[in-house]
Amino acid sequence: MEFKNSLFRTKMRTKEKSNKKGNKKDNKFILASHRLDLSNEDINTKSINQMARGNRNHGRFYCVNEKEKQLVFTKEKGFLLAESIAEYKQHPHKFMYIEKNEDTYTLVSIYNGNVFFDGELDQESQIIGQIEILENLDEIPMTISIFGIEDVSFIDVDSHTISIDVLDSSICSSLKGNKLYLSQDPAERNKRKRVILLLFITVVLSIVVCVIFYLHMKKVEREQELMRQNMKKVDIYQAYKSAMDDYSATYIITNLSKEFTQLNSQIHSAWSIGRIQYQGHKFIFSVMPKKSDSVQISMLLHCVKSLGGVLSWNQSDFGKSGAVITFSPNHKEKKHKLYYITPIKPQVIHYFQSMQMLLKGKITDSNYITRKLSSYKNVEIDTSFNDLSLNVLNYMITNLDHYPAKISSLDITPNNDNGSNYINFNVKLVINFYGE
């Protein structure tokens, strides 16, 4: 690769003067600073960019034909004038265009369809030199188009190989910009690249931020859903705990037996116990007097007071209606029982199967109600038993503490019709089982 040395000094002339001219101020067509032949050279974009940076000019690379290549350097941005004229003239074999400026001449010569020379010349002798060079390349005639030169006598018009065409207007007015020959400021190209890169980075960062935000929101949603599920479990647990948080069956029957035994031992001579109930965490004894006199009431009142109970009666008719004694269990002895959620049906079946031998022939009536609560089930079993001993009753009720169940109400009536000296009971029991 080498410069065209014979033309190098001329083509490297500065364009500062021409840039100051009024008729060039708005001209979008520019001259090359210089050209490099790239024939038989292995050239690539990286090499071109390196040469452009080395010459501190803008580079424009294009193919002249399949065998020849040129690299054009310019100091300005715009359309290459010489290439645009060659395109406009349809790549003639020999052609030259000369335009007169104030102090210089713009000259473009084309040979064999390609740009041979383009530049700013100061003297007419330089123009003659360029004409002679182009003329001597071969014997084919050439055409010279001239604009702005009034006296063309310095050109040898008698030569049979030269024809002169004087134009009324600059050839630039007829040219149209071809992007193939567009030379742009590298700073602008780099600026566009930076803008595109910045947009790309912005888009990528936006996508990354959106993805991170989306993943964060999904994580927050999962955590909130997990929290809701956990709170639901806590609500279920608390509801079940509240339902099961009650006196244990053992505590109930123990206190009931204790109250019955103590009361019966002290009042059996004057009073008979007709009915015993457990409702609303209270033991209620209904008693009937064997004699209707105020002495019986005084004795009963003293006895109930010593046992810590409350006595109520109808003073005008206590002989027929009797009296009611109420005992309230000590709340300090309230016991907590919690099984949490367990299958409810097997629990009910297992309980009554375990009681089957003891209660054989004793069950007179039984029914149940199933309720679906907010988070668990409740089965209420209302059963009546006949002629149960206190021991059997005690065992049957105490055994409930092994199940997720509690006693809602207990109604006991002493039964002395069995012909024995022992007191048996007719029992109506309401049990609530809880679970799934």
Could you explain how this protein is built, in words?
The chain has 436 residues and is α+β, with helices and mostly antiparallel strands. Helices cover 37% and strands 29% of the residues. Strands 14-15-13-12-18-19-17-16 form an eight-stranded antiparallel β-sheet. It has a five-stranded mixed β-sheet with strand order 8-7-6-9-10, sandwiched between helices. A three-stranded mixed β-sheet has the order 1-5-11. A hairpin with a 4-residue loop joins strand 6 (94-100) and strand 7. The chain is rod-shaped and about 170 Å long. The model is unreliable at 1-27 (pLDDT under 50).
Global structural class? alpha+beta
Terminal CA distance: 94 Å
Query: Shape, please?
Result: rod-shaped
In terms of DSSP E residues, the strand content is 25-35%
Estimated helix fraction: 25-40%
**Largest sheet, spatial ordering of strands:** 14-15-13-12-18-19-17-16
Spatial extent as radius of gyration: 60 Å
- Average predicted local confidence, pLDDT: 77
